[in-house]
């Protein structure tokens, strides 16, 4: 069920982590469980198919579940298949290269709102421009610890593709 498809949200190309942060912030209520999925791998080079750009060092997408329904929905503003997609379909169509070995850190809404901080210093190409909104918390890039696959972060979970589907594909 696509419920967010016709709504407008802040968006800036190449700022997936901030796009999802803003989306989750605007859609938070008691009806939905909300998460950010930080996707990367050991080599910081993941293949995301059916996408505006297929190679990333990381990508961030939203994971939403209506508490009254059984299924999860993925929100990805950069997908060529639509920004709102059923969970399993999205994972299977966007992460087909098993050798890329994507790892997914699931970050619950409250932890994201509390721990996500960026000064945008990781964005080194000036031609990309910046989002229309102010920096989020205007502090050192603390969001990059979500990409550290060796670090255990309280309240978050790290999965490979098969584990992620098993856990959230119900």
Report on this structure:
By secondary structure, the chain is an alpha+beta fold. The protein has helices at 16-27, 87-94, 109-115, 161-168, and strands at 32-40, 46-47, 55-56, 59-66, 72-75, 84-86, 103-108, 157-160. It has one domain: Roll (C8orf32 fold). The longest helix has 12 residues, at 16-27. Strand 5 and strand 6 form a beta hairpin. It contains four helices and eight strands, in the order αββββββαβαβα. A six-stranded antiparallel β-sheet has the order 6-5-4-1-7-8, with helices on both faces. The protein has a two-stranded antiparallel ribbon with strand order 2-3.
Distance between the termini: 15 Å
Q: What is the CATH superfamily classification?
A: Protein N-terminal glutamine amidohydrolase, alpha beta roll
* Rg (C-alpha, Å): 15 Å
Figure out the total of helices.
Answer: 4
Portion in helices:
10-25%
Average per-residue pLDDT, rounded, comes to 83
Multimeric state? single chain
Structural class from helices and strands?
alpha+beta
Low-confidence stretches: none
From the 3D structure, determine the CATH topology: C8orf32 fold
Strand order of the largest sheet: 6-5-4-1-7-8
Could you tell me the strand content as a percent range? Answer: 15-25%
Compressed to H and E, one letter per element, the order equals HEEEEEEHEHEH
Please identify the top-level CATH class.
Answer: Alpha Beta
* Domain module count: 1
The geometry reads as globular
| CATH architecture designation | Roll
């Amino acid at each position: 069920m696509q419920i967010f498809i016709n709504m407008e949200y802040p968006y800036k190309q190449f700022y997936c982590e901030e796009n999802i942060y803003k989306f989750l912030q605007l859609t938070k209520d008691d009806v939905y469980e909300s998460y950010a999925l930080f996707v990367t791998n050991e080599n910081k080079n993941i293949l995301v198919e059916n996408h505006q750009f297929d190679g990333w060092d990381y990508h961030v997408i939203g994971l939403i579940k209506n508490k009254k329904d059984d299924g999860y929905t993925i929100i990805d503003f950069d997908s060529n298949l639509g920004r709102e997609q059923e969970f399993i379909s999205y994972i299977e169509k966007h992460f087909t290269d098993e050798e890329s070995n994507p790892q997914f850190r699931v970050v619950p809404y409250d932890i994201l709102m509390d721990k996500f901080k960026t000064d945008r210093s990781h964005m080194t190409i000036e031609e990309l421009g910046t989002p229309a909104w102010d920096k989020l918390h205007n502090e050192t890039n603390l969001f990059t610890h979500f990409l550290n696959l060796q670090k255990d972060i309280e309240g978050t979970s790290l999965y490979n593709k098969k584990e992620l589907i098993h856990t959230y594909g119900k």
